[in-house]
Amino acid sequence: MAVIFAAFILYNMFRNDTWYNKYKCETKEVALKGVVTYVSGRSGFTKVQVDNVAKPVSLNVRDEISRKGFDSYHFFGPGDSIIKAANSKEVTVKNKDSMVVFTISCDD
């Protein structure tokens, strides 16, 4: 009985990790070029609405590449311009003279 219970727990852990990674990687395939209108969620489950995209997209920061002007905790917010090519993990966010470039969290 203990072996079946342990196998069930391991299966659920694997399934949840697979689901979570799929959730994080959905944004990789999307091209973004617009203005952020809304940000919601918490660390690991952040959703961003871009003005010219029909539904919110997942946007979780993995690594910062460069930063100019924004404070150290600012990656994106309402009013910021966002640019990301389709099938890329690199995101550029700008607002006036400030800019940050980062990669999204996606294990593929």
Can you characterise this structure?
By secondary structure, the protein is an alpha+beta fold. The chain has one domain. It has a seven-stranded antiparallel sheet. A hairpin with a 5-residue loop joins strand 5 and strand 6. It is elongated, with a radius of gyration of 17 Å.
Major β-sheet strand ordering = 3-2-1-5-6-7-4
In total, the number of domains comes to: 1
Uncertain runs are none
**Shape annotation:** elongated
Structural class: alpha+beta
Helix content percent band: 10-25%
* Strand content range: 35-45%
Annotation, overall tally of beta strands: 7
**Helix count from the secondary structure assignment:** 1
The N- and C-terminal alpha carbons lie at a distance of: 35 Å
Largest sheet: 7 strands, antiparallel
Radius of gyration: 17 Å
Give the topology string: H per helix, E per strand.
Answer: HEEEEEEE
Average of pLDDT: 85
What are the salient characteristics of this protein?
7-stranded antiparallel sheet; 1 helix; 108 residues; alpha+beta
Describe the protein's topology.
Elements: H1 2-25, E1 32-40, E2 47-50, E3 57-58, E4 61-68, E5 81-84, E6 90-95, E7 98-104
Antiparallel strand pairs: 1-2, 1-5, 2-3, 4-7, 5-6, 6-7
